[in-house]
TrEMBL record:
The species this protein was found in: Rosa chinensis
Cellular location(s): Cell membrane
Name of this chain's protein: Putative cupredoxin
UniProt family annotation: Belongs to the early nodulin-like (ENODL) family.
Keyword Transferase: no
GO cellular component assignments: plasma membrane; side of membrane
Amino acid sequence: MAAFKTSLFWLVIFISLGNSLVFSAFEFQVGGTQGWIVPPTNDSKVYNDWASENRFQIGNAIRFKYKKDSVMEVTEEDYKKCNSSHPNFFSNNGNTVYRFDHSGSFYFISGAAGHCEKGQRMIVKVMSTDEESPLGKKSAGYRAAVYELGVSKLVFVQFVLFYVASLVF
């Protein structure tokens, strides 16, 4: 019984400390509450301004929410020309999540006719692991932690473990 109590105690401690390590990736919502839309006529750089105010790292993800539109990841050349004929990635499901698996520049455009030309495009620069975010620079975008198991499951497991531990100890 003593071995069980000790094992349970260390399991609770491990899960508690592990939570801070699990939640290291973030999900950024492109366009905030308005989502991925054609920007106003006088604000065609809104998405690039937003992207430059954030610090993206490998493992982070960006979520595009939209209606009657699409999102494409393209080459730099296709980005400059608003060419949607050869995307590296395409989605039109209205709720697209794109996860960054390496550092570098990523080029996104709308696949809807004429939208890219009106400013619905964005360059995201993902930092390499040896780059550091400037001190004191906070992310201006909406972000939510992305969890492999989901926060509700981890919180529930932690709650159950603490409850069991309180009964045993």
